[in-house]
Q: What sequence folds into this?
């Protein structure tokens, strides 16, 4: 099939608007998968993705389609993550395409991620084909959606395709529209290789596998290639296309999207730098590398500890395995006096963080304590030196005189919220309570509003989205992008047990939050700590100031006095029991606390 009959495209949509369902229909329509064989949502490969209905890693699939002109077309459908936490992955997927289906749910209309992803696709110069989905639903309002597409995106909707991905109605019109409205990729197979690394993953049998887009040249087994990013050279072991699983090919040509692995393989997945350009060995001085991508920065951090330190090794393996397939997660060893040895993990955003936690729990069933997600803090010392703190334990103590002359900054985001007009008042209140600053309020239909706010990133990990959904019967949608650092009055909040700080629980919070959070902490922690022989005082301290306090009364003396000599066997039994349970107990100062207390305290 010649280059002019290739099409590389993706689907731009808000979560739940039917991207995965439509992808399946297209794969069935082209005979890539057979209909109704239970092989649903082929592109959402990971269990968690299927379960949560979101795509985290971009997948791709090739289809061969016989057009009405009687010719075969080679179509690459590149799946993209729908969520902005994965913006870097979205941008990379878009750059391997020349067009996109802009998919909108006929009853929901344009939503926050439709807007955000539209602008990303538009900035990449993609040709867009509007597709209205779910026209089978009673609540579908196709004219309203077309009007939104025209007013919000200034799109010509005369070519819009109306479909039901569920029943298959109209789906047959999509690929003809792709062929006539999305240009073929450019590129010259006779030139030296110019190949973009779009994605990579680890396969138990093949090792590190790369998803690549060829801009020029060809690639086949035995070719020697050079990486611009690392300077490494490799020999191609196998090339192929995802159809929908790996199907080996003799050769990949300019314009195609396919996979490659090397022989010998890449040793470390870190050598696969997403956005890297490869060329033929010997041409590295002639060929110009493609523009790369920014390395994504982690914005949300948690610490994770095994409930039982005996599980450390097993859990270390699980985490290493998960990180291997998601390099946007950063990983460091961590140690807590209260919780023992563990890890500190960094994520692109709060959804990314919760998806990873779910994986850890579901795929590995690990018993694990995970601290509350937190955003980093930037400290600018009076000397002008900057420090970014991702672990509250590393935040200077209030006694450190330098911290008083330092300036503190927290990360902010620009958030876009869409919602029905009747809930505007309540949503503004929620955003203001989250220390948001309103940027704009716009009607994009008579009843739908787009609210723009500048918000502290910390409000996102405090479940701002959940609160907005709660206030709008689930109608609010949220999208955001990084807006840089803002100066803020921040303070370290410590949980103290008999004057001793529980290091793993500490958080850096805005001064306006300390009273509420401090009270919440002491009340909740008290519930989970057993009585001791002596009084236990639980306090929350903001810097040096105590903001909340609870007391756990000791056992009454007579309870102990009742243990007579005749109770010796009982006492021994008790001691043995205590020994067996000891592994799970830890001391904070002189107070013994069961690990499960931390787990309960930290779980929502
Ligand atoms: P994604 O998040 O964009 O990948 O959305 P999914 O493909 O997972 O679809 C979200 C939900 O909408 C699922 O429950 C689908 O069964 C449903 N859905 C998708 N397309 C249609 C459609 O055309 N009609 C109806 N009624 N439901 C649909
Ligand atoms: Mg999906």
A:
């Amino acid at each position: 099939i010649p280059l002019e009959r290739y099409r590389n495209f993706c689907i731009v949509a808000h979560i739940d608007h039917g991207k995965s369902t439509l992808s399946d229909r297209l794969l069935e329509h082209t005979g890539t998968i057979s209909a109704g064989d239970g092989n649903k949502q082929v592109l959402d490969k990971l269990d968690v993705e299927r379960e949560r209905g979101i795509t985290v890693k971009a997948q791709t699939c090739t289809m061969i389609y016989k057009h009405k002109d009687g010719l075969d077309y080679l179509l690459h459908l590149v799946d993209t993550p729908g969520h902005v936490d994965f913006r870097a992955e979205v941008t990379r997927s878009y750059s391997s395409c020349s067009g996109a289906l802009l998919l909108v749910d006929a009853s929901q209309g344009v939503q926050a991620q439709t807007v955000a992803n539209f602008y990303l696709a538009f900035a990449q110069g993609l040709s867009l084909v509007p597709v209205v989905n779910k026209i089978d639903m009673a609540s579908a309002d196709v004219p309203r959606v077309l009007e939104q597409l025209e007013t919000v995106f200034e799109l010509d909707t005369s070519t819009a395709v109306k479909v039901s991905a569920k029943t298959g109605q109209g789906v047959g019109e999509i690929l003809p529209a792709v062929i006539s409205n999305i240009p073929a990729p450019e590129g010259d197979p006779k030139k030296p290789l110019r190949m973009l690394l779009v994605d990579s993953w680890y396969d138990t049998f093949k090792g590190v596998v790369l998803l690549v887009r060829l801009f020029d040249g060809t690639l086949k087994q035995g070719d020697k290639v050079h990486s611009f990013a690392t300077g490494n050279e490799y020999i191609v072991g196998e090339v192929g296309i995802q159809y929908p699983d790996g199907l080996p090919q003799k050769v990949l040509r300019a314009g195609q999207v396919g996979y490659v692995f090397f022989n010998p393989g890449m040793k470390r997945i870190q050598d696969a730098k997403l956005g890297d350009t490869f060329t033929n060995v010997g041409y590295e001085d002639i060929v110009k590398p493609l523009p790369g991508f920014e390395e994504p920065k982690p914005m949300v951090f948690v610490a994770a500890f095994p409930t039982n330190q005996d599980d450390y090794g097993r859990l270390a393996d699980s985490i290493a395995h998960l990180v291997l397939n998601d390099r946007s997660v950063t990983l460091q060893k961590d140690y807590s006096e209260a919780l023992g040895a563990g890890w500190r993990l960094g994520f692109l955003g709060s959804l990314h963080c919760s998806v990873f936690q779910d994986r850890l729990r579901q795929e590995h069933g690990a018993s694990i304590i995970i601290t509350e997600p937190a955003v980093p803090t930037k400290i600018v010392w009076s000397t002008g030196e900057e420090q970014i703190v991702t672990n509250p334990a590393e935040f200077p103590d209030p006694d450190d005189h330098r911290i008083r002359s330092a300036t503190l900054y927290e990360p902010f985001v620009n958030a876009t919220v869409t919602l029905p007009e009747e809930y505007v008042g309540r949503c503004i209140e929620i955003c203001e309570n989250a220390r948001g600053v309103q940027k704009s309020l716009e009607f994009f239909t008579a009843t739908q509003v787009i609210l723009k706010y500048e918000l502290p990133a910390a409000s996102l990990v405090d479940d701002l989205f959940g609160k907005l959904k709660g206030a709008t019967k689930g109608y609010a949608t949220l999208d955001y992008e990084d807006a840089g650092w803002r100066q803020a009055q921040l303070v370290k909040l410590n949980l103290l047990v008999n004057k001793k700080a529980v290091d793993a629980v500490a958080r850096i919070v805005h001064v306006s939050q300390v009273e509420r959070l401090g009270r919440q902490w002491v009340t909740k922690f008290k519930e989970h700590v057993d009585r001791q022989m002596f009084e236990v005082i639980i306090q929350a301290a903001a810097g040096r100031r105590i903001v909340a306090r609870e007391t756990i009364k000791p056992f009454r003396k007579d309870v102990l006095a009742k243990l007579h000599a005749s109770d010796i066997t009982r006492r021994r039994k008790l001691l043995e029991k205590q020994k067996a349970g000891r592994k799970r107990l830890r001391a904070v100062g002189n107070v013994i606390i069961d690990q499960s207390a931390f787990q309960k305290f930290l779980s929502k």
Confidence is low (pLDDT under 50) at residues 46-58.
